[in-house]
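The freezer alarm interrupted the setup, so I double-checked each line after restarting. Inputs confirmed:
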Amino acid sequence: MSVEDIVRWILGTPRQSWGSVFRVLTWTVLFVILAGQFTPKRVPQAGDFLPTRPGVFEMFLKNGQLREEPPEFEGGEQVLNMAWIAGSTTFNLLAFYDRDDKYFLPIRTADLLMENHDRKINLYSYNQTSQRLLDTYTVLLEAVSRNPDIIVVTLNPAWLYNSHSIFSRQNVFNARSDLLFTSASWLLWIGVTTPSSHFLTHIGKHVPAVIPPKDYQKAISRRPQQFFGSAKQPTKAHFGESTVCNLETPLCFWLNQASSHKSQPENHGETEAGSTPQERLLVNVLERANTVPESFAATTLQAIDKLVAESGVPVFFYLAPVSPRITEFPAAADGLERIAIAVDNLEQNKSGSNMVFLARIPQAEVDSIAFEGDLIHVEEFGNLDRYLAEEINKFLRTQQ
Amino acid sequence: MINYNFDSTTFFFNLFALSILLLPLYALLRPAWARRALFSLAGAYLLFLIAPRLMVFYVAMWVMVAGMQRIIFFTAERRFGLQFFWAILLCVLTPMVSWKIFGQPFEIQFTILTNRVIELISLPLWEIDMAREVVIPIGLSFATFRALDLLIKTFIGRLGLLSLDRVLFYGLFPPVLMVGPIIEYEEVQKQSDSNANLSAEGMLYGLFRVAFGLIKVLVLAFALAGSAAVFSNYGESELYTVWLGLFVYTWFFYLNFSGYSDIAIGFSRIFGFQLKENFNNPYFSKNISEFWNSWHMSLSRFAQRNVFVPMGGFRSKTQFLAIYLTMMTIALWHDITLAMFAFGTYHAFGLIVHRTLSERRINILPQGTAANALRILVTYLFVALSFPLLVMPLDRALEFYPSLVGIGSAW
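Predicted 3D structure, all chains:
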């Protein structure tokens, strides 16, 4: 019996009308909705490992998280709602899986802020590692729509003006592609979102069974592999060359090919620089920082500026500090300087007084930070929490 | 280092989601040219979603194929027509053959070159292109054979001159872009010239066929996918695990591949296109000849039409050579490696033996259900034993085979 025969046998009835099509589709939709009720609400997220306390809420927007609605922001005069959009530069990432004293900058800063406020601070953390600017923008659109008292945005210098990896596989913007469809960013919407992401955004939210449960797929597919004697799974994060490149596909490919656009400065050949694979990657990315106005980054930052100005929500942007060791890599240091100048320009040309772009953390504060493994990820945060709390406080006073 | 993270399910997921828009538009559009244009645009957009460089490459390729078809059409009967024809076939084959021979270096150069073209178009497009995952010319083997088929049929007079929009429609026909089948132009010709309404029957059949394919790929094949581990861990596995792994893998391979074909065939039927079958219960074939008539049938048909028949497959003196060359075409289409040479030779040997026995009317087994079951089993075993050559380099395959008799495995 061929597939054709089987399908014909299933269909059975000699007359197939549009009514039949309607009935089949109705039953299919009902079945999918029903199946969704048995689908687990949530898959584990990287942020589950982050420290927490009462008043801290995770606000992930990844596909897996669509099964669970992020919490509503609390109202009332007694509460200051602070949203914090950030990535791996706000916790001790490289030592994270090996140690107990996990550090999370937003919580520490919020605690210090509370010392100067008589209001309870609720922290709504939008944290995602490898967060690209498109993700930041999408999350910002979501956060702004909830009208918090303040939003803090940590800009990762590696990904801010980066032409080689404007989005990565995590793609928050794919989980909420509807947010990107604005008058300021419809071109981005066309360029980067996909039909399946629209489907997930609009249908998946209400019918959880249609969401591809990739995390479950991994868990299921391991079983037969174990039966057939697959290699041992790594038990903790290991940042070897291949791991880094797996995490950053296809960025590694393009960096290795020394690919650059005519708008970028020439590659200085620091490909082999850096003491770790992660560091080599970041040195290369920083070196190729592309701040020309036609770039995706510049377009996205224009859209961000417009969004914040129109929303009236106070937003504090700061460029995450970079290890002083960057001076060992002159081309990367030049790239970082270009980025800082571009962020300074954003501050000077901003469309509203409800935002601030902090491009440079004072050297004394940077010197108090212990970087580990690469130029951007931090082991000990030093005085950064206190410095940021003071700056955010100053900014908040200007907004009252 | 290159990491390939492209997943065909992503392509089909995008195709389904796009169809929510495509289907009503297709139904509303009446002129056949507009429907063709809609499908071509959808195909180009789906390629753009994989990587803009692939869209640019394939659109350029099919525009060139349209030009080549024109040249062949007007020169076929003239002096040097045959030379033109061979030169054109060589042009079309070069990228695919280079890919198969040079492998990763070709992939790298292909990616860089096409990305450079994108750079000339626009900076944001260049940035999008680099952020897309795939860095191989995915779908090239299918596209090359479809192009060859079109050009050969033009040369022998089976196809007339096609307009550019028809060639683009055929080349960018969305359901078959990534994982086939290798359709012939005639399979889509009738519907591409039609402005008829969509039919409930086609819609219903297509939906069920797609569902059938999805179950094969996402449920059955997915559950068996881990069996591929047997090809890397046979040294530490027990004897029965190696055999079981091999058998399970053959089913994974079949269910996955035929599942995608079901999706492509079903999806096409929703829009009224009746594609030919690509699989027909191959593992229940009673002999190797029957197997190759029911496994990846679109490729077998291509090889039969364009290699077996012209090489004298129906003439007694040349039939064995024709069989060998046909099997080599099929094998080397997958990859030009020593393992695939061995794969093609192995199956050609099986086919030649079967042909010889059939011609001499030698029946090793008597007729009857039990004998048929044995025939099916023997054919399946013959096929299963060729899978290591399909998925491993020759040296590793030669290490794998002894583990099937307990040498090197942990029994």
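Quick read of the result. The first helix of chain A runs from residue 3 to 11.
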